[in-house]
Amino acid sequence: MMEFDSPGAFADHLMRVAARLPSAEAVAMDHGAKVIQDAAKESLGHYQPAAGPFGAWPELAERTREERSLQGYTEDEPLKRSGVLGGHIERCAEAREARVGVPDIEVSHEYDSRPVNIGAVAEDLEFGTVDMPPRSFIGHAAFVHGEGAAGVVLSIVAAHVSGLTASKK
After folding, report:
1. Which comes out higher in pLDDT, residue 53 or 21?
2. Is residue 17 a contact partner of residue 161, using CB atoms and an 8 Å limit?
3. What residue spans define the domains of the chain?
4. Which bin fits 136, alpha (ψ -120 to 50), beta or left (φ > 0)?
5. What is the tens place of the pLDDT at every residue in 80-102?
6. What letter does residue 6 receive in the DSSP assignment?
7. pTM of the predicted model over 0.70
8. d(CA 11, CA 4)
9. How far apart, in whole angstroms, are the C-alpha atoms of residue 32 and residue 83?
10. Which residues of 25-59 are buried (b: 16+ CB within 10 A; e: fewer)?
11. Res. 111 pLDDT band, cuts 50 70 90
């Protein structure tokens, strides 16, 4: 426990904490976002149960299984083929905001010479299309692991405010 010789020393400490708080918050938010990012990546290839507003992932259609097999992939690992999607789940954090998602960039894949926008693919998978049911992997991860991510953020900021750590970004 920190002790202060005077009210002025305590005030000086609070001023130093306040000056470093945005940096500590950004570090904390990045760690919290990593919890969601890791959970989203780990969900790929594994059927997810319903959670909150997110439905359980339905079984892959027979034609999808056949297509996967013809392309040399296992038949029953939803949202996982070459690893391109998982490799593009990114996070970004600032002092009081964090985002986890897939960027709108063109990527190529080994079974088709045409590049695809991996962000658009992720959006179709997350929300579904006319021909494909949704299989939420980012929203689902945030719902299921959000409380744990918030706990990580809180513990880092609390450690900073209490003087147990000096945060640097």
Report:
1. 53
2. yes
3. 23-161
4. beta
5. 988 899 999 999 998 889 999 99
6. S
7. yes
8. 9
9. 23
10. bbbbbbbbbbbbbbbbbebbeeebeebeebbebee
11. low
C-alpha count within 13 angstroms, C-beta hemisphere, residue 99: 5
Q: How far apart are CA 41 and CA 90, in angstroms?
A: 10
Q: What is the pLDDT of residues 119-136, one digit of tens each?
A: 999 999 999 999 999 999
**Residue with token string 């991860």:** 141
- Alpha-carbon gap, residue 77 to 21, rounded angstroms: 43
Tell how far CA 91 is from the center of its chain: 6
Which amino acid would we find at residue 83?
G
C-beta atoms surrounding 78 within 10 Å: 20
Residue 168 has pLDDT above 60, yes or no: no
| Amino acid in the structure at residue 58 | P
Q: Does the pLDDT of residue 144 top 70, yes or no?
A: yes
Instruction: Output the pLDDT for position 112.
Output: 67
Q: Cα dist. 110→66, 114, 161 in Å?
A: 17, 10, 49
CA distances from 90 to 109, 118, 159 (A): 19, 12, 26
